[in-house]
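Practice problem: Leucine rich repeat containing 26
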Amino acid sequence: MRSPSWSRPRPLPLLLLLLLLSPWPVWAQVSATASPSGSPGAPDCPEVCTCVPGGLASCSALSLPAVPAGLSLRLRALLLDHNRVRALPPGAFAGAGGLQRLDLRENGLRSVHGRAFWGLGALQLLDLSANQLEALAPGTFAPLRALRNLSLAGNRLASLEPAALGALPLLRSLSLQDNELPALAPGLLGRLPALDALHLRGNPWGCGCALRPLCAWLRRHPLPASEAETLLCVWPGRLTLSPLTAFSDAAFSHCAQPLALRDLAVVYALGPASFLVSLAACLVLGSGLTACRARRRRRCRTAALRPPRPPDRNPDPDPHGSASPADPGSPSAAAQA
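Answer key — C-alpha cells:
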C-alpha cells in the first residue's frame, strides 16, 4: 500500500496573501524609495533641472534658451547661470512666488521686460551679472520689495534711471561695476535708504556736476581704500584723471542746486493749473475778438445793402421865422437899399 503523498504549497499564492494582509502596502514603500523628492521630474522640480531638499533647483550650464516651465511655489533657489536665456518675457517666473535666490549670470541676456519679475515678492538675491543689458525698462525691479542684493555688473548699461530700480527699502548691496555709466541719475541713491555697499569700479565716470549726488553718497559711506583708489573720473576735454573721493561739496558750488521734493511738488501742482488758466484766458480773448469782428462785418453789410437817401429839395424854413439874408445882387436887395 502506498502512503498518501502531500503536495507542497506554491510560494506565489502565499506571497500574494501576505501582500494583501499587510497593513502598509509594500509597493508604496518601494515606489517612495525609487523616486526621491530631489530627483529630476519630481512634482516640485522643473523637468530638466536637478533638485535637492530645501527647495534648490540647479539648471546651470544646460544651454536652456528660456526659463524652464513647471516652477513650484516651494522653490527657494533657482540657478539658471551659464545658459542661453536671451530675453525674459512678462511673468517669466510665474508660479515661483516663494523664490528667494535667482541666478541668471552669463546668459547673454539682452532684454528684460518690465513685468518679468512680477510675483517674486519674496526674492532677496538677484544676479544679472555678465550679460548684455544696455537699458532697463521702468518698473523692472519695483515688485522686488524684499530684495537685499542686486548685481548688474559686467553689462553694457550707459544709464540707470530711478524708475527702473523703483523704491527698494531693503536693498543693502548694489553692484554696478564694469558697465558704461558716466554718472548716476539724480534721485537714484535717495530711494535706497538701506544701501551700504556700492560697487562702481570699471565705469567711465565723467568729472562734472552730474557726479554731485554720487560723491555726496561716497562721503557718507566711505569705501575701502583698495576700491576707492580705482574710482577715477575723466575731465571733459582733458586727459587727466581725478579720484571721486577727492571731491568735496565745495567743488560743486558752481553747479545749480537740484530742486527739493517740495519744490518739485509745487512746480508739478502749479504748472498744469497755470497752463489751464492761460488757456482759458486765451479762449475768452479770442472769442471776444471774433464776436467784435463779426458784429463789424454785419454792420458794414447792412450799410451796403441800404438804398441811398435822396437829397432834400425843400429845406426847412428858419425855425425862428426870420428870412435868410437876401443876395446883394437880387432886386429885393436893391429896393431895400
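Discussion: The two ends are 209 Å apart (CA to CA). Students who identified this feature from the C-alpha cells alone can consider the problem solved.
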